[in-house]
Every structure is written in structure tokens, then in C-alpha cells.
Amino acid sequence: MSILRRLPLLAAAAAVFLVGFWFLAGHRLLLRHISRATGRQEVEVIGCWNCHLPRSRTELRRGRPHPEPRALAPLPNGLLAVACGPTREIVLVDPAAGRAQPPVPVPGDPAGLAVAPDGGLWATLAGPGLVVELDPATLTERRRLQVGLRPAGLAFAAGGERLFVANAGDGTVSVLDPAAGRELARVEAGREPFAVAASPDGARVAVVSRMASVGRPDRIPTSELTLLDGRSGRVEARIPLPSCHLSEGLAFTPDGSRLLVPAVRVRNLLPIVQVARGWVMSSVLAVVPLADPTPRLLPLGGPETPFPDPGGIAVDAAGRRVFIAGGGGDEIEVLDLEALLAAADALDPAAPEDFSLNRHFLRRRFACGDNPRGLALLAGAEPLLAVAERLDDTVALFRPDGSLAERIPVGRPVREDPVHRGDRVFHDAGYAFQGAFSCRSCHPGGHTDGLVYDFDIDGIGRNMVLNRSLRGVAGTAPFKWNGKNPTLQRQCGPRFAMVLTRADPFPEDRLEDLVAFIQSLPPPPPLAGAGRVAGIDTGAVARGEAIFFRDRRRDGSPIPPSGRCVTCHPPPHYSRFQKADVGTRSPWDGSGEFDIPHLTGIGSKAPYLHDGRARTLEEIWTAEGVGDSHGAVTDLGKTGLNDLVQFLRTR
Amino acid sequence: MRTALPLLALTVLTGSGCREPVAVAPAGAELVLAAPAAAVGAGPWLDGVVAGARLLLLDPARPDEPPVDLAGGLAAVGPPAIDSAGRRVVFPARATAEDRAALWECAVDGRGRRLLAEVPGEVLGATLLPDGRAAFAATVPDEAGPSRDLPASALFTVAADGGIERITFAGPARDPATLPDGRIVYAQWLPAAEGRPAPGSFVLFTVHPDGSGAAPLHGMHGEPGRARRPRPRPEGGLEHLLLPPGGPPETRLVDWGSPRAACSPARSAAPPRPTVLPAGWRVLDRVPAGPRPRPQGHLSSLRPGTAFGRLLAIDARRDGRGASVRLRTSDGVLGTVPLQADGSFFALVPVDRPLWLDLLDRTGAVLETGRSPFWLRPGENRICVGCHENPETAPPNRRPAAALLEPLDLSAAAAEVGR
Questions:
Q1: How far is CA A448 from the centre of its chain?
Q2: Comparing C-alpha atoms, which of B90, B57, B58, B50 is closest to residue B74?
Q3: What ranges do the domains of chain B cover?
Q4: Is the pLDDT of residue A261 over 90?
Q5: CB contact under 8 A, A271 and B403
Q6: Which of A544, B14, B258, B361 sits at a 20 to 30 Å CA gap from B176?
Q7: E strands, A246-301, where?
Q8: pTM (predicted TM-score)
Q9: Min CA distance, B94 vs chain A (Å)?
Q10: How confident is the model over B97-129, as pLDDT tens digits?
Q11: CB–CB of A274 and B213 under 8 A?
Q12: Which fold has domain A69-418?
């Protein structure tokens, strides 16, 4: 009882002692502790939990996956095959009956579909890196072939004797002999090869890459359109698409003389000051004549009327029309093919983008469901355009005049949850000024476009920073390269609207949904690792791991904590969630301290460092490295550095 | 206490014991400004207030009901604007014949009418912004206009607390309206220049509600004539009046989303004359009153109190010629900025005043005299191509060399040349 009575007194004495201790010695001890661990010389506002509270590596759990139809393939039997990646299913839709059959599970997440000349249905399965042949009537698996990482689009060439598969995950194209069931060649392509198309005579195959190749941050980004021989798979041309990226569709003109590639035309080298008039980005159709492969970039949006996030494309040879899906504005554009080609022929490729050209070939725009992706033309008495409406889990059939003939739900119905609602927000351009772009326009698949941007909020030409991936960000606060945003709500809040979308901020409930979606994004899978890349040097990975966690140099001398990799990049996220100065400040940076990035999926996050100056992981310590300022590496030598990089690629 | 409890409950249940239901204009309704023809004549009428005019809310679904006159009892009234919710109306009006025209507001059913804003000049027209503020055009008596018939005028905004802010600083500005993207579209006078006949003409401009980002929208180098009274159409496109020299006014439609030519004569038939109007009255203006989608908002990134704005031009050269640009105000030259090899320049410039750019060669001789004024707001960052920017084009993706340099500070020179 007496002790209880004295409790307030004891508490007060303890408080006085703690305050006194803090002023006399605590701050100094804390600073020494932090400095020993991180090399930092100031405390700022951080807490013990920054380092000592274990953080879960798991992202927000999604509910039951939605079918999210993407790719479409009309079958000779009159049915339409629909790839539903998240549910790992393929659905057959009967357009005549206006209904879908029950979904059929497949051994992976289907990304692309193609029909062989013999009528067989082929699908790429992104996760396991497979191509499977399916019976077009029953969808039973006939056989499977291993290809590269995360295969996406595919197409048959040479009369069905060759199958080309774009391996988005490792930047290659697999050339397959489907009859023999083997891979003949694996050809280097651009970054994230995505869509594949074969010429009408099957003699040529084109592959377009979704991401711009990694280059110097002050140079014009270009994505690669790779032209291959339809039989040998030999590369005939690598055609750069300047300032273009995020292409997910590709088509030959009916005469095979030109390629049509919808793309986002980005202006990342200009300071982001105005969204109006396409000064941040616009959407284009790259018309590439094979005889003179200089891309002619024609605007898909008109003046004051953007057409954000173009995706799927379908060419109607009979009707001489081109259909393009606008994923950000939920619209389909119908273009006149002849007028389009005439405009392309007349265009000076070096001229500034003139949005008024659009009126020469645009015939119609019509609304469709949420986030249209794949398109397919259905032959019949009345030709129909099938549209995969990803976020509505439907396939819509439109007449050529844009009127809706049928809207068919695919897969099992799933209740809307915050993550799915957030997915809608993420892909909706309606939150940006004039509906010019969506979150996806810079973060395809929740990842990054790998480009450097100059936001004007802290001055023009100052603090230019690399766009960071959103995948795996759950639990990695703070955000932004300057580490100033403690939450994703703050990161995506009103300030974001002020400096980027230049419109109303996300409404509060939408912002919460958006954050739920972002937190649900898993980290990118490691580029290298057991079973992912044949020939991975497991010895190098093990040696690299030892280097990463080492505390002594090769000569046995101790490495101070501030020079150890693991000090700033501890597992599981491989980040200390603080800022650090690793000697990368440029003349245009206001500070040399930047948020320590987490390293999960680091292999697919090139380029590197806050301003994207390092094109590869190696360049962090070679071309862009300054002594041991970014970890103790100078004693490693080329082999040791390579081992460290190999280890990082498995994270 | 016993009687108070049921009253309190009723108040809670009904939301508010004394609040009146908020009137909303029915779909299809319109606000019609009409006046005796004798008061306005037969020529084109554009803005300002008209003595004896009436401002009527007409509901076509109830043709037999007598319309509400929102301006009843006011001496003169001008063109109305209504918010996207179909509830709040603003209009210029004079309470008595001796008053200046000021900005008035009321509910769509005419209730709660009050004086909203009064400035030294005459209020000519107004619009309502998505954030609840009103923007209005008013004459500026202490500034000289291009001619006696065309006094200086500018756009202003008025907040709910009555705070008034000027947002345009060049050329007479008239006819504000709100676009679906939240910008204000208005007619701005530009002096004669290439493609614009003497003495000048009205061109359609847009500006953000904070006065930043003013830019030509349409008619910069188009057919001769004055573009006035822009009005976004509910179904898309922008209607405006084209006043050809010496010819009758023509209603034009700018429809960027249409595969048709960008600007064409508006083909929709003129709406029927309201039957409630007395004979000899003329319809001066009519505005759809029913609810429509709320325009986008705009978060201002201006920094009030900042004396400068940042101006980055991507390529100010003309046909590859030009070595520097000279920046001047109406009072004198602020300074000269050298062009980088790619034609770019970067400067800090004074704010809230009209500025002109002249293109100079290596010897300092003027290659081209800037005729179209522009302005920056406090803390505004502005990026442009140069003097010959086409509003329907976007520049190439190239980092301007000047962006990596320290901007030349011309804002301090503003004090020396006076205001």
C-alpha cells in the first residue's frame, strides 16, 4: 500500500532521471549507437522501431482473385477464348449465345493466347514460364513447353511451323518448333518484350517491348520493336521507338507493309509543369513502314481530348478500320486505315506532335467497360469487336458503329473488395487533369517505367528523380526519395494532385482503396534464383551472400558498420527505412541524403540510384561509384562484385 | 422542457428545424436573360448589364407556370452563370441606375439574393468555379484599354469570405466560363500581329482559377474576327460567337473530340423563343440550368507573397534564328537573357504584370518584337516553347539546356523600371 502511495513520486523521479540522463548523456549515446550502425551523424526524427522492430515482408492480402480478362483469341469453332490471369483460368465464350462456359483451370496464369493454323489453342503461362497447347473445344492440355521468364504475347509464323513467344521477364524471344516441341533459339529483344505479331504471309514476326530500354537518364528513352525472320528467328532489325513505351499491342497492316504499335509517348525530359496539351505524356500510334523503318508517331488523342493508356489493337482488313483500346479512359477508338496511312506518309517524323492530325483519321470513339485490354474481331454475318473489360470481369461485343451487342460476364463472380476498387482507381485516368493519364501510365503493373522525372515543386531542373516501383512497398515507409512521406496516403494525397495530376486529389475513400491496392502488390519476382534461370551460378550467389553480410575485408581488416551492406539493407526488406548519403549527390540535388531503397526484386528495377544514373547493378559501384562511399567494395575486384550482383538478383 | 423535447426531436429528424430545402434547377431548365429590344438594339449583344432586363428561370416541363425573375427589383442585369449542381446563380447587376454593376448571387429559385462582390469597375460577366468561388470579368478604370470602346478589363475571383483577387493581367479579358477540366475559358484581346488584323481581336484563352497557366486555346491565328462568349456545351465541345468584321455574328463550335473540323458553324437549331416573353423583348442570353457533371478542381501551387515566377522557354528561336531575348514591361526593359544552344532560356520574372519578349540577334538587333503579353503569378513555374507556340502541338522530349542552369533573375529589375 505504501509503495502504491509512492508510485506517483517514483514515476516523477524516474521521469526527472530520464530527462536528465537524456540531456547529459542519452543523446550522445544514441547518436553514437546510430553512427556505429549506419554512419549517420544526426538523429533526426527516428525511433528505435526503425531498426529494431521486425517488419513483415508480406503485403496486404488480396481477397479472392477476379478473373480480369485480358487476352482474347477467336477460335475456328466460333468460340472466343479468354485468358483470366489472376484466377489461372481460361474461359470459352460463345458470342452467338451470349454466354460464357465455366472457367477451366490451367497450370499457371495465362497471359497471351494464339490459335495455330491447325486450330489448336496455345497460351503463355507467365508464372511458370510455360507455353501450353490446349484442345480448343475442351481446353484440356495437350502438351507444354518451357520458355523464358514471364512469357506474354505469342504468334505463329511460317505457316504454323514456328511459334514466337515474348519473354517479358528476361528480355528475350523464344523461337519454337511446335511440331517438334522444342525451342530452336532464344533471341535477345528489348526490355519486357510483350506483344507479338506475324505478318500476313508469316514470313516476318515483330515483337514490341513494353518498357523503354535502360539508358542514360538525360537521353530520350526508346523502346525496341524487334523484327525477326519468321522461320529462322534471326533478327532483321531493331527499330527504336523514340520516347515511346508501355506498348501492349501490335499489328501488321493487311498488306504486311507496315506495323502499327499503340504506345505512350512520354516527355519525361521536360519539367512536369503542365499536363495540358500532352506536355507530360500523350498516346500515339507508331506507324512503322518496313521499307523505311522510321516510326511515324500519330496522335491517338486530339487537342484537349487525351486517349490515355492505349493497349490492345485490332485491324479489320475488310472494313479498313483499326480499333484501339484506351485503358485509362475506358474507350475504344476507331480509325480509318487509309486515312491513317496517308497521314503517316505525309508526316515529318521530326516535327512536333500535332494533335490536330488526329481528326484526319479518327472516325469514332465509344465508351466501353472498365480498363479495356485485349481486342479481337469476330467474323460473322455481323462483324463484332470483342473487348476484354478487365476490371469489370466481362467481355463486351460491340457492333462497328460502337453500339453494344452483348456484355458477357466471364469466370465466377467475385465480390468487390478494397483492393479491386483500388485497382480501378489506379487505372482510371479520370483523376488527372483532362483525364490525361492514370497511375498505371507511369507504373505499369504497379511497377515502374524506369524513367527519371523533373517535378517542379522544388524548382525547375532540380532534384530530378527516378520513378520508383510500387511493387513490394507495403511495410517500407517512409516513401519518396527524400523520405518525407510517412504513409502511402500522404504519398498519393493532395500534394501528389498538386504536382502531378493537377486536378482534385483522390477522394478519401478512393485514396484508401488505392492504398489498399498498392499495398497488395507483391514484390517483383527475383530475376535469378533456383529454377528461374538455367545456368545460374549458385556458387556465385553464395559467395555474393557472404559479401553482403560480411564484416571484414578480404585482408581481414574490419569493416565499420557504416560500410557493411547489411547495415542499411537488412532483411527481410533489405532496407533500414532511413536516409543515407552514399556520395551520389549531383549539382542539381538539394541534398545528398536519400531514402534507402528496399532491395526485393531489385534485379528488375533498373536503372538504379536516386536519379537513375546507374544502368545496371554493377554500375552502382563501377561507373557511378566513389570509393567505399556506398559500402565497402573496393577490395572486391571484378569477380567479387559480380558475385555480389548475382546475390542481389536473387532477392 | 416537455414541449421542447418533441421540437428537438423533430429538428433532429428533419436535419434542421429552420433550414429551407435547397432548390435545384430541373433538368432541361434554362436561365434566360431578356430585355426590351429597344433597350439593346438589334446589333450583337455580348456582356455587361442591361437596364430593365429580366433574368428568368424557365422549366420547359412546366410551361404554364409563371417563371421566377431572379433579378426582380434590380435596375439592370447581365449574363448569368449557374453552378454544376444547378443551385447557385451569379450575375452582374445594378441595384439602382446610379450604382456600378456589381456581382450578385442567389439560389436558382431566386431566394437569398445578395451582393457578392463589388470592384472599382463595372462587372461584365461571371462564372462559378468547382471550388465554390466565382470568377468574373470587370473593367479596370485606372488602366487604359485599347480604345475608347474597349476599356481595360480583367478577370477576378471572389471567395466565400468575400476576398477578391485579380487573376489576369494582360489585355481586356471578358466572358469567363468554366470548362469541364476546371479551367476558365475567356476572351482575351490581343493586339494586331501576324494573323491578327489591326487593331487586334479577341482570342479564346484558358487560365487556371488561380490565374496561372494562361494560354491561348483557339483563334490565335485563325480566320479574322473576334471570338467572344465561349460556352462549353453539355454534350461536349465549346461554342462561341465569331464576330467577323462587318458581318453578322455566327455561332461556332470547337469540338476537339469530334472527327469533324475543329471549328465549324454550330449546326444545332436555335432553341425556340420562350413563350412567356412579352412581344418586343429580345433574348440576350440563355444558359442550361440543370445539374451537370462537376468540373475538375485545381489545387493551386502558387506561393502568395513570392515576388517572382520561373519562366523556362524550350526554344525561343524563330526559324533557328535568335541569340537572346529581351524581357520588358510596359514601363521599360527588365533585361536580356541569352539563349542556350538549343534555344532555351530560364529566368525569374516579376509577377502579376504584363510582360513581353523580344527576340534579338547576336548584335542585339531586334529580330522580332513580341506583341502578345503574358504574365506569371507569384511562385508560378511556367514552361513554354517560345513566342510561337501552337496550342495544338506538344514539344519534343528533350531536356532544355537552360533548365540545368541557374535562372537569370529579372524580378529585381522590375522595381527599378517601376510599376
A1: 5
A2: B50
A3: 8-288, 308-417
A4: yes
A5: yes
A6: B258
A7: 251-252, 258-266, 281-289, 296-299
A8: 0.90
A9: 35
A10: 999 999 999 999 999 999 999 999 999 999 999
A11: yes
A12: Methylamine Dehydrogenase; Chain H (2.130.10)
